[in-house]
Each structure stands twice: as structure tokens, then as C-alpha cells.
Amino acid sequence: MREQVITRDIIADPKTKYGDAKASTRHFITQRVTGAINVLFIGLLVFIVVRLAGQDRADMVAVIGNGFVGIPFAVLLAVVTVHMRNGMRDTLEDYLAGATYRLAMLLNTLFCLAVGLIGVISILKLVFWG
């Protein structure tokens, strides 16, 4: 089967179907919602940074190990990694195509998943096991 060459005329024509409309809408909404959540949680992040400035490990464990701080902080980290993945996806879509794009997206997803899982598990370990 011959692959269709996508030109500017095809993209500009509203009668052609270019891309996945549902996935694009979901991506747009996810990016906006995670951005709004990040703005709401910025106060928590500033509190943690200011509270832990110049403190030793015991104070860090005491602050982050508190359930009222640690659990929202873990949620914030998860939301930030989703937002980070989507932001990098936008950049990768602009500059890469084909197999290179798919490889870069795989690496981006794996990196964000690793950062999110390691961070959330570390925070929850402090909350539940000190």
C-alpha cells in the first residue's frame, strides 16, 4: 500500500481527517487540567521548600512524613509527571516524525513513568514507614 504524502493543503482542508481528534482533545484537556492543578498545589510546594531550607534529614522526614503534607505532595508529583510527559510530547511532535518520534515518545514515557513511580513510592515510604 502506498503511503499518502501529507502536504500543507491536506492539513488546511477541513474536509480531510488529519490526526486523531479524540486523542488531541484528551491531550489538550489533560494539559490544561494538570496545569491548573499544578498552580493550585504551588502553595504546598513553596511551603515544603521554605520549611526544609537549611534543615537536616530528620526534619525533612518529619515534614514529608506527615500524612497531611506527604500524600498531597505525592499526588502533586504524579500530576507534574503527567504534565511533563504531555509538554515533552508537544515538543517531540513538532520536531520529530516516524520511527524517531515513536522511539523518543517511548523514552519520554518511560522516563516520566520512572520519575513518577520512584518519587511517589519514596514519598509514600516516608509517610507510612518513616
TrEMBL record:
Pathway in which the depicted protein is active: Carbohydrate metabolism; tricarboxylic acid cycle
Keyword Repeat: no
Keywords: Electron transport, Heme, Iron, Membrane, Metal-binding, Transmembrane, Transmembrane helix, Transport, Tricarboxylic acid cycle
Topological category with respect to the lipid bilayer: Multi-pass membrane protein
Spans through the membrane: 35-54, 60-82, 103-128
Cofactors named for this entry: heme
Cellular compartment(s): Membrane
Keyword Disulfide bond attributed: no
Function: Membrane-anchoring subunit of succinate dehydrogenase (SDH).
Subunit composition and interactions: Part of an enzyme complex containing four subunits: a flavoprotein, an iron-sulfur protein, plus two membrane-anchoring proteins, SdhC and SdhD.
Protein name: Succinate dehydrogenase hydrophobic membrane anchor subunit
Organism: Devosia neptuniae
